[in-house]
Amino acid sequence: MSSVKATFPILLKHWHRLIGYKFFWPVFILAGLALCMAVDTFDFVDLYLQLILIYVGINIILTVSLNLINGYMGEFSVGHAGFMAVGAYIASLLTVHAFPPGAQNFLFPLAILAGGMGAALVGLLVAIPSFKTRGDYLAIVTLAFCMIVKSVLENIDAVGGPRGLLGMEKLTTLPWVFFWTALSVWVIRNLVYSNFGRGVLSIREDEIASDLMSVNTRQVKIIAFVVSSFFAGIAGGLFAHTLQFINPRMFDILKSTDILIMVYLGGIASISGSIIGAVIYTILLEILRPLGIWRMVLMPLMLVLLMIYRPRGIMGMREAHLFTPLRDLVTEKLWRQKKKEAPDASA
Amino acid sequence: MPLLEIAKLTHRFAGLCAVSDFNFAVEPHELVGIIGPNGAGKTTVFNLITGVYRASEGSIKLDGRELVGLTPHSITVLGIARTFQNIRLFKELSVLDNVRIAHYGQIAYTPAEALLHIGRFRNEEKRITTLALDLLAIFKLDDVANEKAKNLPYGLQRRLEIARALATKPKLLLLDEPAAGMNPNEIIQLMEFIRWIRKTFSVTIILIEHQMRLVMGICERLVVLDFGATIAQGLPSEIQTDPQVLEAYLGMEVAQ
């Protein structure tokens, strides 16, 4: 009863903000999608800028999905580029060899989806060693995985071997990138704010305690790895159909490092942080392009400074309110209200 | 029928026998203490019961069901919860989330429903959050529900750990040195608190303790371990005068 009494004034007081929270995302996504479609149809934005926006979207997908493993679960995976490669190759093989040329545009989402599913299946395999190993050792396992993917691809002639695969049409468009980015952010946010997501967090905090509090840690790890690699595969498919050319060397440890930088720049265990990290890193790399080779000196230097002054990244372990589900927000508001009232009650 | 029945339990770490031939039964609603000097194997017994270690030999039965070989989380779902000697909360998470996580074994939605926030998800989350907040209110922790667990004072962290364990709906609660780091006054409060928990949540409690005042004050029955062997079992009054126990605790000469 008391909680009902307390809820009501808060809802009254904050109704405009709560409605803001409730309708912000649907409106934002519909407007964003419409804008992307308009840009795509009428081409009133510079093509170069469009390309950068596409890369921003792909990098957001990669960063948010890697953050699930490295930030929320507290493991250190360096194999994200490997999952990306699996998705890129599956999607490209489908569009180049399997789909009829006329229906490419319609079947493109299916190719991307298949790439994601293939990557998810491989993610399932990588989840198994994570049952027994942690920390540095799991990092080595994922590193090995990344190298295996690269050398397997280099040795299959059907996919072009080291020369790579080409012949993809430029099917990745701004609206599709927007759609997949929004989907990945939404799904990963949903996961994080569920009991499975809390399970992921509890594994980071204390795996044994989490197991003893009835969390099925194996199930949680499988979910985390499958979801994370699924979206890495999606990003890979989108990447391949932007560049229209892929080869195994694109997906080596350096690519994984790029994604890691974006995760730690934006901040671990934060979806808003991942988005900020991916946007800043991608755009900064473009802006600094005139510096030539000095770009690769300046960027790491900035990263070192960031790690000194903000070791947890821009948004480390914090979340923008917009990414918190309404229910959790109301619970939090209730508590804050109570805390504010507490001194009056005692006086 | 006993709630927990341990027979011929033996555990070795690379040759070192941490627990040997441990036989023990607990009736429902009992409050039993396990005592013994440092390194006697008390915590190992807890780790064996909860599945953290797999017993080398012997059997552990809860309600007649064999627990040896099960994973810790399935044992917890069957009804055994524990706290830790050195507090092991999820430090960076909120107090509320610490308790909500313990409902993992009871959630009725599938991962797919969680990913898309559809189906049973909303109602289940509401149910879990309400249960968790109610439990926190019972333990007077609702004011700090959104505080990070690491920011709580020591006493509240201990209380939260017990609340978290009870959220798994245990039949049997294992408390590993609940009085560690407490002064005599706090220990008296803790005794009341443990009795109150047993009554309110109708659980059976086994506790490990060094503080004789606490053990003698609330336990109905005691088991004394020394170097992995059971040296005495019985009422607190019997244990207090048992020569073998005095020897283990105080040394040979005093006992004579």
SS-based class of chain A:
mainly alpha
The counted number of beta strands of chain A is: 2
Major sheet size, sense and barrel closure of chain B: 6 strands, mixed
What is the residue-mean pLDDT of chain B, rounded to a whole number? 91
Low-confidence region ranges of chain A: none
| Dominant shape of chain A | globular
Question: Which residues of chain B sit in consecutive blocks of at least 5 with pLDDT less than 50?
Answer: none
Our estimate of the beta-strand percent of chain B is 15-25%
Kindly name the structural category of chain B: alpha/beta
Termini separation of chain B comes to: 40 Å
Q: Can you walk me through this structure?
A:
- The complex is a heterodimer of chains A (347) and B (256).
- Chain A is mainly α and 347 residues long.
- Chain A has a domain at 45-253.
- Chain A is 75% helix and 1% strand.
- Chain A contains 13 helices and 2 strands, in the order αααααβααααβαααα.
- Chain A has helices at residues 2-42, 47-72, 80-98, 104-127, 135-154, 174-192, 195-205, 207-212, 217-243, 253-266, 271-287, 295-309, 326-346; strands at residues 165-166, 245-246.
- In chain A, strands 1-2 form a two-stranded antiparallel ribbon.
- In chain A, helix 2 runs antiparallel to helix 9 (217-243) and helix 2 crosses helix 10.
- Chain A starts with a helix and ends with a helix.
- The model of chain A has no long low-confidence stretch (mean pLDDT 89).
- Helix content of chain B is 40%, strand content 23%.
- Chain B is globular, with a radius of gyration of 19 Å.
- In chain B, helix 3 packs parallel to helix 6 and helix 7 packs parallel to helix 8 (212-218).
- In chain B, strand 1 and strand 2 (16-26) form a beta hairpin.
- By secondary structure, chain B is of the alpha/beta class.
- The mean pLDDT of chain B is 91.
- Chain B folds into 2 domains: 1-79 and 171-188 and 210-256, P-loop containing nucleotide triphosphate hydrolases (Rossmann fold, 3-Layer(aba) Sandwich); 90-167, no CATH class.
- In chain B, the strands form 2 sheets. A 6-stranded mixed beta sheet of chain B has the order 6-7-8-3-9-10, with helices on both faces.
- Classes of the chains: A mainly alpha (347), B alpha/beta (256).
- Chain A binds chain B through residues 3, 187, 190-191, 194-199, 201-202, 204-206, 208-217, 219, 223, 227, 317, 325, 327, 331-332, 335-336, 338-339, 342, and chain B through 50, 52, 71-73, 76-77, 81-82, 84, 88-93, 96-97, 100-107, 109, 111, 114-117, 121-122, 125-126, 128-129, 133, 143, 145-146, 164-165, 167-168.
